[in-house]
Design goal:
Layout: H1 6-40, H2 45-73, H3 75-91, H4 101-117, H5 120-131, H6 137-166, H7 168-179, H8 182-189, H9 193-200, H10 214-218, H11 221-242, H12 244-252, H13 265-285, H14 297-307, H15 319-345, H16 353-381, H17 384-404
Helix pairs in contact: 1-3, 1-5, 1-6, 1-7, 1-8, 1-12, 2-3, 2-4, 2-5, 2-16, 3-4, 3-5, 3-7, 5-6, 5-16, 6-7, 6-13, 6-15, 11-15, 11-16, 11-17, 13-15, 14-15, 14-17
Length: 409
């Protein structure tokens, strides 16, 4: 079987990136529409935080199981099934009832959506790991995180326009329909025997290692470091993705339809951080032994500095300034995600890559579950500025520990 060319390998990586875009588009539709949804369904800020936690809790339970499943069946078969399932659930938001019952119906749909989307990140990570060479993988994971920001970039103008014309229920339906365009692209990209051979089998290693049980995998020092870093960064990213629309409406009294012209910018800056720092790490990896990829100290410090910009968001005296500062913070968060994901997955057996990615996704869900209702309560009792300052403080210890113990792993 002839190997894939570099362009064919990158085509598969880009398709994996688009999987993440579809996933984030469907999950972020609620965040973009949250000012309207919470007002019309009479949902408080704290209850909105619990809705976010419900999705994350379901994702937490599903991600490790989905990773194990994908390690067995492969992303080529597993991802199309998952996309069809979660798109159907996302479209079902069109049937939301009114106040009272609407909260409970929305809660159930968010739980189902979280479970259905659990294979997205493990499957996309497996695709990047299997399709790309070890030297290209850090850059590939930087590109992979673009998928989440791409979905978050597309949703604001699409959802805002649909909501303005047809109402928020049909906005959910429209976003879900757009995501289904990914399926024929994936089937076309994976049609060749070479692509199937690459995606259906882990890459050959110099010293092949079997897949580790989850209990053993979670005790690996590299995995623990990745989980620790995820717990540090995820709450800030959760605020940027899920609470920025509410911040703009509460602070600057913007209408729902105005958000689409602003919220595309933070995902663009997120892309720059994720791709740029992933490429930086890829260049470093080319000069390191394959068994010991370098852990980035300087890139990590720079990324942390960018992420801390979240504390300065309340200083923006205009919507555009606040959105730009949010985008700078997201650039730092995207850079950190790309760096520690590439580093963590480079240090586990190839047969355990999806399971490891599932554990990282679960750690992110744990952070979202804990942070979302606390953010909602903090906004109700104190202010958005207080919450952003607290999240900036939370960032520092976890990332510093991740960087400080880098040579002990």
């Amino acid at each position: 079987m002839p190997p894939l060319t570099r362009s064919q390998s990158w085509l598969l990586a880009i398709c994996a990136t688009l999987t993440m875009a579809v996933s984030y588009a469907d999950r972020q539709a609620l965040a973009v529409l949250s000012p309207t949804v919470t007002r019309e369904l009479q949902i408080s800020e704290t209850a909105y935080g619990w809705l976010l936690s419900a999705f994350s809790l379901a994702y937490l339970v599903g991600a490790p199981l989905a990773g194990r499943w994908l390690d067995r069946v492969g992303a080529r078969r597993g991802l199309p099934i998952a996309v069809l399932l979660w798109s159907t659930i996302a479209a079902a938001h069109v049937f939301l009832p009114g106040p009272g019952a609407g909260l409970w119906a929305l809660l159930g749909l968010r739980v189902l959506l979280g479970m259905a989307e659990a294979p997205s990140f493990p499957g996309a990570s497996q695709t990047v790991h299997r399709a790309l060479s070890p030297q290209d993988r850090p850059r590939g994971f930087g590109v992979l995180y673009v998928g989440s920001s791409l979905g978050a970039m597309v949703v604001p103008p699409v959802a805002a326009a649909l909501e303005h014309r047809f109402g928020f229920r049909f906005a959910f339906l429209g976003v879900a329909a757009v995501g289904l365009a990914w399926l024929p692209l994936w089937l076309w990209a994976t049609r060749t025997p070479a692509a199937r051979a690459v995606l259906d089998h882990p890459p050959q290693e110099a010293a092949p290692a079997p897949a580790l049980p989850l209990r053993a995998l979670i005790r690996q020092p590299a995995v623990l470091r990745g989980i620790f870093a995820t717990l540090a960064v995820a709450p800030m990213m959760s605020y940027a993705l899920n609470w920025s629309p509410k911040y703009l409406v509460a602070t600057f009294h913007l209408p729902q339809q105005a958000l689409g012209g602003l919220l595309w910018l933070p995902p663009v800056l997120y892309d720059i951080g994720s791709i740029g720092f992933g490429a930086w790490q890829a260049r470093r990896a080319r000069h390191a032994p394959p068994s010991q990829p370098p852990v980035p100290l300087l890139p990590g410090v720079v990324a942390l500095a960018l992420a801390l910009t979240c504390a300065a968001v309340p200083l923006g005296d205009a919507p555009g300034v606040a959105v730009f500062l949010t985008g700078v913070a997201m650039a730092g968060g995207g850079a950190l995600f790309a760096l520690f994901t590439a580093d963590t997955l480079a240090r586990v057996p190839s047969a355990s890559v999806s399971a490891t990615a599932g554990l990282l996704a679960s750690a992110q869900s744990v952070a979202y579950i804990a942070a979302s209702p606390l953010i909602g309560r903090g906004v109700e009792v104190r202010s958005h500025a207080f919450v952003l300052g607290t999240l900036a403080v939370w960032l520092v210890p976890g990332v510093v520990v991740w960087l400080g113990v880098r040579r002990r792993v």
